[in-house]
Design goal:
Radius of gyration of chain B: 24 Å
Number of helices of chain B: 8
CATH topology of one domain in chain B: Alpha-Beta Plaits
Order of helices and strands of chain B: HHEHEEEEEHEEHEEHHEHE
Strand order of the largest sheet of chain A: 1-2
CATH class of one domain in chain B: Alpha Beta
Strand content of chain A: under 5%
Strand order of the largest sheet of chain B: 11-1-12
Distance between the termini of chain B: 73 Å
Number of strands of chain B: 12
Oligomer: heterodimer
Largest sheet of chain A: 2 strands, antiparallel
Low-confidence stretches of chain A: none
Shape of chain B: elongated
Number of domains of chain A: 2
Structural class of chain A: mainly alpha
Number of strands of chain A: 2
Shape of chain A: elongated
CATH architecture of one domain in chain B: 2-Layer Sandwich
Helix content of chain B: 25-40%
Structural class of chain B: alpha+beta
Chain lengths: 153, 257
């Protein structure tokens, strides 16, 4: 019956899509621990995210070679700041990169040391300056040693 | 056995079978041991400690390969200034990736406001990041199964699977999601899933000099973060949405949106 032809075409198409799906959709795609509403996904993606590259290695990593500097910082008020906050992410330093991109800018220091008169925030308790009054435009590291915060150079 | 007895017997028998099958489907005894997870990641933000340095944002962007100069970020810091007249000013210039280095509040469209010290009633900083909701609406709306909740409670995006339709960006009540400027797929904070699974802390937690940001395991009763959430007065964002956010705040104020 020729009127049924479109129906056969549709059925064939649906069949082809179902067959194609077997090859396209990976085996681990489906419903996992969190059920259909929250856990319908490709399981292998979890491992892909776990394998994402770590860039910030932490103080302990720096300490292995720069023990003396670490000791110096430890006795200063800046001991709460991670090395990599100013020195940039360590990655595989020293093999890659050999030298880190150190931020010595005035703006970096001002992140904490612009005085902001904010009650109910710890910010107002930090020693701060008015950047427009205190040697405007000058680099802080010319006079201050960031590794020994309390002492001038 | 007469017909009446037979029908009674058949009816009771099938009712008992249906009940047993129903109970099995509701409680799924076979699935119970598998569904129990030893880890549920939670986050604690202490807004009293935050100083608005923005080192968390810097570390997050570099760690998670979000182009630094792009105005999108997985985490950001908001500043709230409440004046004596009751006015609320809030800003987050460039997601605070360079911190707050001026007392001028950025009102957007190149308009700024200087608020003199005498006029300020209270002012504080609020770091924001993905709440890793227990009932994430962003996951519900994904038409292709590209975003999902891991067994330990973190919501991830499958970059290979995402078609970039943007439904999830619309669905998140916290505005956490955005398009990745390079990959053009949905992007969001995932508590640095690669770091927490190696025993490290998320990049923002490590970078915070004031310990304003902390991560913990809610399934571990002795975990310091779990203890604070259990024993202190913590607050969540937009609880009325019923998303059950898992980022808890100390010192949240009604001005915070």
């Amino acid at each position: 019956m020729h009127v049924l032809r479109p129906l056969y075409v549709v059925l064939a198409l649906a069949g082809m899509i179902l067959i194609a799906r077997i090859f396209v959709v990976p085996e681990d795609f489906g419903i996992h621990e969190k059920g259909y509403m929250y856990g319908w996904y490709r399981k292998a993606n979890e491992e892909e995210w776990k394998a994402f590259k770590v860039k910030y290695q932490g103080k302990e990593y720096c300490q292995d070679c720069h023990a003396q500097l670490e000791q110096e910082v430890r006795s200063s008020r800046h001991n709460i700041i991670e090395c990599e906050n100013c020195h940039g992410p360590a990655l595989e330093h020293p093999s890659d990169p050999q030298k880190l991109t150190i931020d010595r800018s005035r703006e970096l220091c001002l992140r904490c040391h612009t005085y902001l008169p904010y009650p109910t925030s710890k910010r107002s308790e930090i020693k701060g300056i008015d950047p427009n009054q205190h040697n405007p435009g000058g680099e802080c590291v010319v006079c201050h040693n960031p590794h020994q915060a309390s002492k001038p150079r | 056995m007469n017909r009446r007895d037979f029908l009674k017997f058949a009816l009771r028998g099938s009712a008992a079978l249906a009940l047993a099958k129903g109970l099995d489907e509701i409680f799924q005894p076979a699935a119970l041991p598998a569904s129990w997870q030893p880890v549920r990641w939670v986050f604690l933000v202490d807004t009293y400690k935050c100083i608005g340095c923005g080192f968390c944002v810097k570390a997050c962007k570099l760690e998670n390969e979000i182009p630094f100069e792009a105005n999108v970020s997985r985490t950001w810091v908001e500043r709230y200034v409440v004046t004596k007249e009751g006015k609320v000013f809030a800003d987050t210039p460039q997601e605070a990736r360079n911190g707050f280095i001026t007392d001028r509040v950025d009102l957007g469209k190149d308009r700024y406001r200087d608020i003199p010290k005498e006029k300020i009633d209270k002012a504080f900083f609020v770091p924001k990041l993905c709440n890793q909701c227990e009932k994430p609406p962003c996951v519900q709306v994904c038409p292709v199964g590209a975003t999902y909740q891991t067994p330990d409670g973190v919501v991830l995006v499958d970059r290979q699977w995402c078609i970039g339709c943007g439904y999830c960006i619309m669905a998140c009540p916290y505005g956490m999601r955005f398009f990745h400027p390079v990959y053009h797929v949905a992007e969001k904070c995932n508590f640095c899933y690669h770091r927490i699974n190696k025993g490290m802390k998320p990049a923002c937690v490590s970078a915070c000099p004031m310990e304003a940001r902390k991560i913990g395991n809610l399934k571990e009763p002795e975990d310091p973060v779990t203890k604070i959430i259990r024993t202190q007065r913590v607050e969540i964002h937009k609880g009325e949405y019923g998303t059950k956010p898992q980022v808890y705040y100390l010192g949240l104020s009604e001005e915070v949106r």
